[in-house]
Amino acid sequence: MAVAHRGCVLAGYLLLLLLAGCKARIHSLTLKNETRFAVDLNTFGFYANGTLDVNLVSLRLQEQLVNYSNYPVGFSLSRSRVNGVLSYTAEETETCPLTLTKLTSTEPLILFLIDIKTLSVNVRAIGEQDNLLRAKPKAEAPKGLRKTRQEPANAANTPDVSKPSTNRDEKADDPDNKLNKDEKDDKSVESNKDIQKEEKPEVEETEFQLGKNKQLTLALDKVNGSYNFSFHMVVGLLAEGLYSLKFHYCQNRVPGHACMLRLTEVNPDGYLSAAEIPLSRLYICMAGVFFTAALVWVYTLMKHRYSVFKIHWLMAALAFTKATSLVFHSINYHFINTKGHPIEGWAVMYYITHLLKGALLFITLALIGTGWAFVKYILSDKEKKIFMIVIPLQVLANVAFIIIESTEEGSSEYYLWKEILFLVDLICCGAILFPVVWSIRHLQEASSTDGKAAMNLEKLKLFRHYYVMIVCYIYFTRIIAILLKVTMPFQWQWCYEFLVEVSTLIFFVLTGYKFRPASNNPYLQLPQDEEDVEMDEVMTESGALEGISKVKKTCNGRERQKESTL
């Protein structure tokens, strides 16, 4: 338990550190010295009339080291109906997606190529498009302005030979003539400034229908050595789907580029993706179901309070913690959907309850697997080692989950912690199976060596059922549900969370039913005192006490019941 206490303290400390940098669904990402070939900025499911705002605040490149004509830099926006791997990302990394000229699959693609020489962004729309792009096009200097700029320069360079030099000298010595000359110079300077202002007029944003305009040229601004541009896109009725925005730096062997951008993705109903919109209602409904199941469990414990063990109350605490975690999860999604970012207080409560729920789940499953409090009150050395491994790993898994939730998808540590979470979760799921396997093996040996074969076979049957339940729960929530999520359409991917919560509820109910504190439970009515069992067998075989009943203690030593010696 000391290990669990230290783990919870460490997790709480890390939680406070992470919440300081908690990100919102209105994304803000900064990349420095990146060497990745492609950076996954975000994946979002858009309904019709959803909007995507991309603002490249600053982009600094090593202009002298890389030929950006051969190794372009820019963005790609792809659309898919499912959450599978996009076709062009499955190609060899030697081929940069920004160099594609034709569609290699049925998935539409929009490319934004940054050209630092001409200060422009070349947009190429590949495939069927029904989106509206609003951006600032590249401005060109009008021909009339070029002529007016060249004519004064030619007039100044042409000498005036029609006038004698004496007149020029006299006019130069005339003070009035000097004043007129100064006034003319001031007017010429002002006119030049006006011409420069007219040469760089402010270009207003223009709307482009990508279904009709397959190639566009947008303006790219350069301020203090950094490039910036922005665009706004409205999803059409025929363009609903799962959009993936990526930043590509084709020459990834030359580090040194820095990028800072802001993303805002909005659906007609809020800031959540299409698959996340129903989650707030789903979590609050499932919280009510878990809370009802927890109340029924507590009622059962109170009804059979004389045959209740400590682990039964631990199971009740797990059910209530699960319900509370779902409530805070629902509230967190509600504020993200309405405001675009989570409220810090509710997010903290959700992370704390999620951490407690995960720790309680694996501790409870491992204790049930060892048979603690049911048939024994002392854990063996092997079982203690399992807890010393599972508890810290479960704390690490919850810390990884919190980091993933509070980190932008495009950051390099996001995928690192995602892999850590997946690996640690599988290790924990495998570790809790060992106590169950050990208990099954022990009961198999005991049923063949002592005289309690019938009792041990009942326990053996129960542990086998429990082992199958755990394996099915892990297999369904970690493998089958994920496969369903990958193959489902983007607007139905919330069914993954629904299946996980329903399977968790079924697992909790079956575990509670198998280990219920009732007198007719074959597992809980087994006696602990071996001498009593042997004496009962001897007296029964001799027939000396035939028809006589005796009072004896149950396994917990608190309830007395009459049993026939037959």
TrEMBL record:
| GO CC, any one term | Golgi apparatus
Q: Where is the composition biased (Basic and acidic residues)?
A: 166-200
UniProt-listed InterPro entries: GOST_TM, GPR107/GPR108-like
Q: Where in the cell is it found?
A: Membrane
Bias class Polar residues marks the residues at: 155-165
Keywords in alphabetical order, please: Membrane, Signal, Transmembrane, Transmembrane helix
Spans through the membrane: 281-301, 313-336, 348-374, 386-404, 416-438, 465-484, 490-510
Instruction: Identify the residues that the record assigns to the GOST seven transmembrane domain, covering every copy.
Output: 278-522
Q: Is the Protease keyword given for this protein?
A: no
Q: Where this protein primarily resides, as one coarse class?
A: membrane
PANTHER family, per this entry? LUNG SEVEN TRANSMEMBRANE RECEPTOR (PTHR21229), PROTEIN GPR108 (PTHR21229:SF11)
Q: Name one Pfam family in it.
A: GOST_TM
Entry keyword annotation includes Membrane: yes
- What is the name attached to this protein's record? G protein-coupled receptor 108
- Please list where the region (Disordered) is annotated: 137-208
This protein's membrane topology, according to the annotation, is: Multi-pass membrane protein
Give the residue range of the signal peptide: 1-24
